[in-house]
């Protein structure tokens, strides 16, 4: 028989096992051996391309937390007082990786898991649009072992518990640019996927680019811990940087957001805050109830710098007043459900596989520019000409873009499912997909 005294000790034992936050570096602008990766010098200082509302856009992603839970964090509440709380911000699906992919390429291509994917080089990303206008960019990944690392994860010494085994602080699924061959196949682009020691060097040299994506490690982003742990990290990392003009000047817009919520049974609402010197004083401490998704970060950047578009979920003719348009008013029951997972046909969905298709060439860019198309993309394969989805799992096959080595997207051999089965599946999930296309590309209102 288990004694009551033993049961009473269980909470204390569990508490003792829970990791306690320890800053991995003395400050956000200090290098640290806890990051493993060496400093690789600084990025070259680029000529600043002026934007309509901001000259630098930095997004920082935290993990797997419901809106109501994030609202209990004193740190998030205090940060919201310094910026604009987006009360109707939504992730686009579950689990983590497809949300990160969507933030880079304007789609998650049916992905419904966290597996290893190499999205073909003829599929464009925001990097193509930025570089077309000479807007500099970089991604900073905490505990990345070296710049441009493409492995599935990386274990390093456990700085939170030196007596414990090495820990997988870094994971590929939270690193959006490394998912795309159009970035990893170009050495100059691959080198811009950098570690946090590089981040410290770049800040100190005033060399932070104009478009920045930041991913904390698996402890600091709340994935393997909780909102309180992530809040402690923000207090040690982000809060000091808000007072550093090399990181945050009066033309900097910062998006602090979550990849997805934790509870799949409710819609995918996430806690998001707009911060930075670009926020006018009159808007600090306010809320914005506009319906936003991860695609809004793309359309906002496109609108700000007058970029082209990807012709995917980043496109919508309704954009913010600041750039001469108006966002859609999506509220209540009109907000589409984005808490589904694995139900959208796409080239990264083995249950409902269809090939990669060309972007919508008639799409309207928030920035007014043309749709960017890679030279090798077959424009004849459109959403309208795709075949019915194929269940590759039933055929004991995998999607062509999964795993090593990098591959191209061709429909694999094998019998197709019946037209009726494939068509019904596509119709059912397509209604949600179309709703997101129509409403998910609003532009942040910061003026």
CATH domain class: Alpha Beta
Radius of gyration: 22 Å
CATH architecture name: 3-Layer(aba) Sandwich
Give the helix tally: 11
CATH topology name: Alkaline Phosphatase, subunit A
Parts with pLDDT < 50 across at least 5 consecutive residues: 4-16, 317-323, 406-439
User: Major sheet: size, sense and barrel closure?
Assistant: 9 strands, mixed
Order of helices and strands: HEHHEHHEEEHHEHEHEEEEHH
Class by SSE composition = alpha/beta
* Distance between the amino and carboxyl termini: 66 Å
Protein name: Phosphoesterase family-domain-containing protein
Pfam family, one: Phosphoesterase
Keywords: Hydrolase, Signal
InterPro entries: Alkaline_phosphatase_core_sf, Phosphoesterase
Task: Write a structural description.
The protein has eleven helices and eleven strands. Helix 3 packs parallel to helix 9. The termini are far apart. It is globular. The protein has 447 residues and is of the alpha/beta class. Strands 1, 2, 3, 6, 7, 8, 9, 10 and 11 form a nine-stranded mixed sheet that branches. The model is unreliable at 4-16, 317-323 and 406-439 (pLDDT under 50). It has a single domain, classed as Alkaline Phosphatase, subunit A. One of its GO terms (molecular function) is hydrolase activity, acting on ester bonds.
